[in-house]
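Title: Comparing notes on inverse folding

I've been comparing how different people in this forum approach sequence design from structure. To keep things fair, I'm posting one structure and asking everyone to reply with a full sequence. Here's the target:
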């Protein structure tokens, strides 16, 4: 029998620009999985709704303002890492105020879903790519 692992609940977004490209962010040095590319987002605080967490994280990490009505629930990732099990709802957002800036990431890049496999990503993010390709 497997030993239960702690559940980590995070939320992420596929920001989609008018050209159908998705914003990915590179994890900075010193962080777990540094150098890998991911969808922007972050941990959900105790008592926080996923939408509120995502709005907060996008303001803190990218300096953009997102309204809840612009966040469309899309799919989710459920993945077991060595130390925890990750559950990550993924939203799609096509409207926001401001220009994304890499406040907490090493870099940002707008990428077409068909080209996302060219960027190393955490294992939990990989199954989301074909779904985005189908959507966009």
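Reply #1:
Here's my take.
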């Amino acid at each position: 029998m497997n030993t239960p692992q702690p559940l980590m609940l995070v939320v992420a977004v596929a920001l989609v620009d008018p050209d159908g490209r998705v914003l990915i962010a590179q994890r900075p040095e010193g962080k777990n999985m540094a150098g890998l590319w991911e969808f922007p987002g972050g941990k959900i605080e105790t008592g926080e709704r996923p939408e509120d967490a995502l709005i907060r994280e996008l303001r803190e990490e990218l300096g953009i303002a997102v309204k809840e009505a612009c966040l469309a629930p899309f799919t989710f990732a459920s993945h077991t890492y060595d130390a925890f099990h990750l559950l990550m709802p993924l939203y799609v957002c096509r409207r926001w105020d401001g220009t994304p800036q890499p406040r907490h990431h090493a870099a940002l890049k707008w990428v077409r879903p068909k080209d996302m496999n060219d960027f190393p990503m955490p294992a939990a993010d990989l199954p989301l790519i074909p779904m985005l390709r189908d959507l966009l």
